[in-house]
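Supplementary Methods, section 5.1.

A reviewer requested that the exact input to the structure prediction be made available. We therefore reproduce it here, unchanged from the version used in the analyses.
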Amino acid sequence: IIAQGYAREGSCALECVMGPTFRAHKRTLMDEKKVLKFKQQLVEEYQKLIPSIERKRSAEEEIHLENTEDEWDLATISQSRDLLHNLYENDFQRLRNIEEGLKRLDHGDFGECERCGEPISEKRLIAVPWATMCIGCQEEAENAERDTSDSRSVMAGMLTNDNGDDNEFIS
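The structure derived from this sequence is encoded token-by-token as follows.
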């Protein structure tokens, strides 16, 4: 009984000292075939995004070249430029996420939630191979972000007092 208790304490001590390296050897997140499959999926997505980003960059440059004095045309050009910029930024962010996913594959921590350390479900990784969080942690992060943005919002040019009454205009 004492030896069993010591063995349990010893493995805990090893896990605490060795950290993620020991845990990775203790439980393998996924086999080599799955790792290769996810790596291929990430590389394919990366290769698709590069031309898409280039097309959006070219389209954005073409919009900058248009010269007009008409207010409606200027508004349309501005809206198109903003839309293309947002699409470009979204693609570029996904490209960075894919690069991070490839790094995690190389380091052996792909498929592990960066927040709680638990494995990310295979279904989630198939759908979003660059995912860094499990569904639960992702939902918590999105809710926290939404709560933060909701607390900053001001509706229809009016301030809301502590009672929830809209009674002051913003000047």
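Helices lie at 2-18, 20-26, 32-65, 71-107, 122-127, 135-152. These observations are discussed further in the main text.
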